[in-house]
């Protein structure tokens, strides 16, 4: 796939995935179109040799797997892991605020978000809404307003003269978005959601909204930018870029090896949930693939997990924030992430395997180690590795402005990552 095609495919995926629920649905739709069969965890599973399947949990996490040729599991499973969530602003349970003639919604910061870029953006609202029909049945429906319905206006510099010297954002008081004039009395979010659901699901009867998980997001679509079209600017590149690359690798693999893609929710808040990487989702699926515990352990010990999550590219205006020998550049290939304190799960063995794969398919690669006097982020890699005992390498595409409302990646890196991950899925010996 050319860099332009890879970036456009990723842009389309991001545009259709404003929340983890929508991202999981987008992944599921692509898998179904490619012939993957959906499984339900509440049912008995009958898996065929060479079968291709996927399963959802909480509508926000997904595991897809291809069993490969006969006895392929004996050679281990090629696993790619990523996460569906991104830092954002989540709507509170009782959010309605009417102040000074304006209607606002109270929000809670989800994850380690860069907050300043959220001001003065055209925002929309999306997520999952749980409703009840007239017969008392509950339904989980995905909702996306799609159009700009909110904004968080900055305070004019005339009223905050020192703002350019540093502005500490108060998440409670500074972030409630403005949605409308407060002229309409007793405006209610649940009534607004019910009306929107009626428009988005016209075949359904009117529904009573009981609860929701809603996030604001930037409506500006992804775009290829730069004088020579070198960069992809988009929301949620961390970590939809990796989810998309893993999906492309799975769908483009030759089908000979046993392959698995796991995209879990809640990474940005620690992964400790029923559908997060620190929960039992992956272990539950592997236990059903390989019911015999001894066989499962042997298979896992023959397997490798590529934990794919974006890496920090060296910013030309802040080069001193990187170790001098470990400053990844945009468009220079995927990054192997290393930390001796196990914030990343990479070992010399797994790093060597990834370097070997990159060399085999002519993909450049880079290394990242955080400065020794700075803290280090983490990924699902150490969590999954410690739960399963699987060999793991942490890698990712280099990006700028990680955790901003709009991030930046190199267009060539999108294609590079897809290419090497496909080679990993097809690798005969790991």
Automatic annotation (TrEMBL):
Binding site for Zn(2+): 83, 158, 403
Protein's name according to its UniProt entry: Probable M18 family aminopeptidase 2
EC number: 3.4.11.-
Gene Ontology biological-process annotations: proteolysis
Family stated for the protein in its record: Belongs to the peptidase M18 family.
GO-annotated cellular components: cytoplasm
GO MF term list: aminopeptidase activity; metallopeptidase activity; zinc ion binding
Obligatory cofactor(s): Zn(2+)
InterPro entries, per the entry: M18_aminopeptidase_2, Peptidase_M18, Peptidase_M18_dom2
Alphabetical keyword list: Aminopeptidase, Hydrolase, Metal-binding, Metalloprotease, Protease, Zinc
Claim: Acyltransferase is one of the keywords in the record: no
Record PANTHER family: ASPARTYL AMINOPEPTIDASE
HAMAP family named among the record's database cross-references: Aminopeptidase_M18_2
């Amino acid at each position: 796939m050319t860099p332009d095609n890879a970036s456009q495919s990723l842009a389309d995926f991001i545009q259709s995935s404003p929340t983890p629920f929508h991202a999981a649905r987008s992944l599921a739709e692509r898998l179904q179109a490619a012939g993957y069969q959906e499984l339900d965890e509440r049912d008995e599973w009958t898996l065929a040799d060479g079968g291709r399947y996927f399963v959802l949990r909480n509508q926000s996490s997904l595991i897809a797997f291809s069993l490969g040729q006969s006895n392929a599991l004996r050679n281990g499973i090629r696993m790619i892991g990523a996460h569906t969530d991104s830092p954002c602003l989540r709507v509170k349970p009782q959010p309605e605020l009417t102040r000074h003639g304006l209607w606002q919604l109270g929000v809670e910061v989800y994850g380690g978000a860069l907050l300043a870029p959220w001001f003065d953006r055209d925002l929309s609202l999306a997520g999952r809404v749980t409703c009840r029909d007239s017969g008392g049945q509950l339904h989980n429906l995905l909702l996306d307003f799609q159009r700009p319905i909110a904004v968080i206006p900055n305070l004019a510099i005339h009223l905050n003269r020192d703002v350019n010297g540093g502005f500490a954002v108060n998440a409670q008081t500074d972030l409630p978005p403005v949605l409308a004039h407060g002229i309409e009395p007793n405006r209610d979010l649940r009534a607004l959601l019910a009306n929107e659901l009626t428009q988005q699901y016209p075949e359904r009867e009117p529904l009573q909204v009981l609860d929701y998980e809603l996030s604001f997001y930037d409506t500006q679509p992804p775009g290829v930018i730069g004088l020579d079209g070198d960069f992809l600017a988009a929301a949620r590149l961390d970590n939809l870029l990796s989810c998309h690359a893993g999906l492309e690798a799975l769908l483009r693999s030759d089908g000979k090896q046993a392959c698995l893609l796991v995209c879990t929710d809640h990474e940005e808040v620690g992964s400790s949930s029923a559908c997060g990487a620190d929960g039992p989702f992956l272990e539950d699926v592997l236990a059903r693939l390989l019911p015999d515990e001894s066989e499962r352990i042997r298979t896992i010990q023959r397997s490798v997990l590529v934990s794919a999550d974006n890496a920090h590219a060296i910013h030309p205006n802040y080069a001193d924030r990187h170790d001098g020998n470990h400053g990844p550049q945009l468009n220079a290939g995927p990054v192997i992430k290393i930390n001796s304190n196990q914030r990343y799960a990479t070992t010399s063995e797994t790093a060597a395997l990834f370097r070997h794969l990159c060399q085999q398919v002519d993909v450049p690669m880079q290394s990242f180690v955080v400065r020794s006097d700075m803290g280090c982020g983490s990924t699902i890699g150490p969590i999954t590795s410690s739960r399963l005992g699987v060999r793991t390498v942490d890698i990712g595409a280099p990006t700028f402005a990680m955790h901003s409302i709009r991030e930046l990646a190199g267009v060539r890196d999108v294609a590079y990552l897809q290419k090497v991950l496909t080679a990993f899925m097809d690798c005969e010996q790991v």
